[in-house]
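Quick question, first post here. What does this chain look like in 3D?
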Amino acid sequence: MAVTTICLPSLAGAASIKEKTSYFAVRGATLDELDRDLNRRGPFVSETGIRHPGATEVKFDGKVTYKATADGCAVDKTNLSLDLEMTLPRWVQSKRASAHTRLIWDTLEKDIRRHEQRHAAIAKNWLKRMESAIRNLRTEPTCPAMEAMVNTVTQRYLAGHERAQIEFDTIEGREVNFRLRRALSRALSEQSGQ
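> Answer (accepted):
Ran it through. Tokens below.
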């Protein structure tokens, strides 16, 4: 459950967002087997140096154009983009798996998907914020000064995005056991109510 951010330093009009989801197979009939396979097959995240049960790769890109004004130089157009690629597990169910194992897997899989979708939502929010900040910059005396200001603002927003992603993972890591127990309890009560 991690995010990888690849940022191009010279991020330079509406933002475009591309999303892709890919899956990796997880095999096993018991919770121990599923856990081992998740740890063996999950996406490797270079920032953490380990495999995770899911991952979201985030890539910001784009360009900004400038225009001369009576006061100097201003932002003309922004053309920002965001590429999101989620990697999620997909269980190749074993006929030997118990109903209890299937219920726990379903609960875990939903939580992994929710977690990665939240990483994507954080990136989309920061893309909108960055685009708005760039579009609303005041005029600078020259276009090189305007470009420098855009680069400064871009780096500030990319750093803010990175902090938001890390904060989210920190909170999620602290609460994962509580959250999964609560979700499993809810799933068990829904199952017994059917």
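The chain has three helices and six strands.
Residues 1-12 have pLDDT under 50 and may be disordered.
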